[in-house]
Design brief:
262 residues; alpha/beta; Rossmann fold; seven-stranded parallel beta sheet; globular
Length: 262
Amino acid sequence: MTDLTDLSGRAALITGASRGIGFAIAGELLSRGASVTITARKPDELAAAGEKLVADFAGGDASRVLTVAGNAGSAEAREEAVTRTIETFGSLGILVNNTGINPIYGFLMDADLDAVRKIFDTNVVAALAFVQLAYKAWMGEHGGAVVNLASTAGLRSTGVIPVYGASKAALIRLTEELAWQLGPGIRVNAVAPSVVKTKFASMLYAEGEEKASEPFPMKRLGEPADVASLVAFLVSDAASWITGETVRIDGGILATGSRGPA
């Protein structure tokens, strides 16, 4: 029987993947047979992440892992990541827009507008730019799958991370528009995690993991591996009739009627 979740022979580009959810996604795709390019801003951290991926998920085969340092907000860095992926692996069938920033918390009336612009540029505009590049360089002719990392903050107001939430709401809408325009050859979906135990989200459980977990029906916070397995499913042939969808992965928090902590 054919394993529809097998990704052998496919090449993936995962942005913001030196740690946390992005790193877990890269590891999961490697474990299913894909080759991966990972990007991040800090070259040293990225190189260390690449070495760990080779050792832990690629069976020591360094030819299956490419690291390209650069800021997702830079047009030159985006172009380099896409170009080098295709030069190295010969294709680019999977794109995961994982990079996200959130330097603003609290009252919107105090929000610095330059910071607001930067959040939207990184979380929304850069994601679209990566899709455009992947489309023109490979996917437009050969097809592929895109997954955008959204958030439950893009589905319900939080009062805590309002600009981040607004940017993720925009990314969810962008996902739907792209799915409509790029089908049938390219599928575009999003995933919307609640609080996942990463350095990025640490402020959301700063008072303790047990307290933060209490409102969740599953009574725990998310792990990067939870999100990674969902993303791997969505980019595989097992999800071949799923596009334009935003899949909540939130431990049931939104099902309670709560807006959730993120």
